[in-house]
Please model this.
Amino acid sequence: MERVVRLLLLGFLALFAQSTLLALSPIRDPLPDLALVAVLFVATADVAVPWCVALALAIGYFFDLRSGTPVGLHSLLFEVLYLAGRWIQRRFFLAGVLFEVALAVSAVWLVAAAVVAIRVLAQGHEPGDLGSIALSTLLRSLSTGLVAPAVFWLGNRWAAGRRPTLAARPSALRGLGSEGGAAGGRPA
Model:
């Protein structure tokens, strides 16, 4: 339960930092999406799925309240991103800095595409200048990809209570190394 509270605090800390950056920065496009990276970190944490789904919902709900988007938009998107990130990490046993950066960059593009699609299909808005949307998404994804390893490191170090490494292995792979068979080198 303590880890769940720490993960929730990490999400709120990311929301607070992102809100502060948006308020202090004269430009918006190249700012990283810290709340999104926090949700992606939750997807890689070894915590029960129902707790993590609730965390993604809470972070998305407060993101919607803070940003002024329709309530429920980022709640739904963050839950889908949590489930997708969890599935990708568990299915392909991916970990490490490159995985974190690739996951964050692709998630920014997916959120941007979903927001544009919802604005066009559900709200009846014109799509606008797709070139400027793509440019702002490119800048945001690059900055998010740059800060993703730092957020994952902070999450590993503080929220999840584990020591991060450059190529941290998922818990499913622990004990399967060549150090001594299935026991992971530990005496029987």
User: Anything to note?
Assistant: Residues 176-188 have pLDDT under 50 and may be disordered. The helical segments are 2-24, 34-44, 49-67, 73-92, 97-121, 130-159. The two ends are 30 Å apart (CA to CA).
